[in-house]
Amino acid sequence: MVKDRKYDVVVIGGGPGGMAAAARVAELEIKRVLLIERDLFLGGILPQCIHSGFGVKIFGKELAGPQYCQLFIDKIKKLNVDIMLGTMVLSIDEEKNIIVSGKINGIEKIQTKSIILSLGCRERTRGQLNIPGTRPSGIFTAGVVQRMVNIEGYLPGKDIVILGSGDIGLIMARRLTLEGCNVKGVYELMPFSTGLIRNIAQCLEDYDIPLFISHTVTKIYGNKRIEAVRISKVDGSLNPIRASGKRISCDTLLLSVGLIPENELSKTCGIKLDSRTNGPIVDENLQTSTEGIFACGNSLYVNDLVDNVTEDGYVAAESALNYLRGWKAKNNFIDIKAGKGIAYVVPQRVSGSSDVLFRIRPGRPARDANIEFSGLGYKKKVKRVNPGELVFIKIKKEQFTKAALPCKGVIGIDIKA
After folding, report:
1. Higher-scoring residue by pLDDT: 330, 349
2. How many of the other CB atoms lie within 10 Å of CB of 105?
3. Which band of pLDDT confidence, cut at 50, 70 and 90, is reported for residue 409?
């Protein structure tokens, strides 16, 4: 049965970004607010993140993932927010009509004036790495193992090799060690770790788990179950060095090789994506290329901390309110380009009509680095930059007014050691 529903704001995705956006929208006294989540519960990945470290910026204290999640669930339930769980969004058209499908209500059409996308991200799998060898059981992504251990109560194996030094992989190295597993090492393709420095210290160094940089898995052995992997060093071009290959026995290979923002839905409504972030191109208000649709969370760019996701959710909510009140972005945007030493920058364009918080992902580790904004005449010195940690820089709107003509509509951002 198809029904019609009408809302002022629809938030798609019930993770930390979506919950923060929905709660903030309702606090701003928007009466018709809907939060849609395809899972059977809210929270996204938070319920399986039982380690502490969440909420320091937002609540001023360290919380575990489920605690942080529950605070927002309780908050949303007290506010005027409709919630649809177990519901998949199938499409969004040009008029912001949303088609959803759920087990309880079937297919429905939802009409709204504004949309906030907080779609999360997915993990890279073995199939995207093209690792040679057989296809046995015992190969998992880090997030799957985290859910398996922390929610389902199962261990993936006993002798573990971890490929990739992303934060979930580092956290699971510690978690599996505490559960009695033998983590033989964490192997990272790049010449530096891609996780937070604190996680390297607290999850690896404190538990004597070795980290091998410039190493990768070049072959998988085993028939029904994985028996071993071949580890090889890589050269400066990230190509394996044949003579360096070493066979390491294991019954489990855990992959922590990056996250991909989930934006298949964004493509259905013609939103332009950034090839660097794999998320939508947004302005300083987190509005996408489609007017009235905003983005936040890991579908916009992969975040380091859930507190940052929450803050972006607040920005998206406040921007949605301004849009409902008649605000429209200027057409003459200044494009932002990630230059030397930078993996990506968000936002990718600015109007210059308000202050802008730039979120900058360094491409490589560096000490005593200068972050320079060409055309703005702005430079900031940073003691240390690391790919695992975003750099936040706020620029006043007056700077853009002065620089709009000299920079010819483009501002480049570089990190120079």
Report:
1. 349
2. 15
3. low
Find how far residue 348's CA is from the centre of its chain: 17
Q: Which residue type is seen at 276?
A: R
Which residues are CB-neighbours of 178 under 8 A, at least 6 positions away?
none
Residue written as tokens 């951002």? 413
- Which residues, 6 or more positions from 362, have their beta carbon under 8 angstroms from its beta carbon? 341, 342, 343, 369, 385, 386, 387, 389, 391, 415
Token pair of 400 as six digits = 């853009």
pLDDT (average), residues 66-95 = 93
The CA distance from 139 to 136, in Å, is 7
Q: SS3 string of 116-127?
A: EECCCEEECCHH
Could you tell me where the DSSP H helices lie in 80-189? 142-147, 167-178
Phi-psi region of 301 (alpha: psi -120 to 50; beta: other; left: phi over 0): beta
Check whether the bond before 347 is cis (ω within 30° of 0).
yes
Cα distance between residue 164 and residue 181, in whole Å: 18
pTM flag (> 0.85): yes
The separation between the first and the last C-alpha atoms of the chain, rounded to the nearest angstrom, is 61
In the chain, the domains with their CATH numbers are: 1-122+259-329 (3.50.50.60), 125-257 (3.50.50.60), 332-417 (2.60.40)
Is residue 366 over pLDDT 50? Answer: yes
With 0-12 / 13-18 / 19 or more C-beta atoms within 10 angstroms meaning exposed / middle / buried, residue 393 is: middle
Q: What is the pLDDT, as a whole number, of residue 413?
A: 82
Confidence of residue 1 (pLDDT cuts 50, 70, 90): very low
| pLDDT value at residue 15 | 95
Mean pLDDT, to the nearest integer, of 256-271? Answer: 91
Average pLDDT for the chain: 91
Alpha helices in 181-258 (DSSP H): 197-199
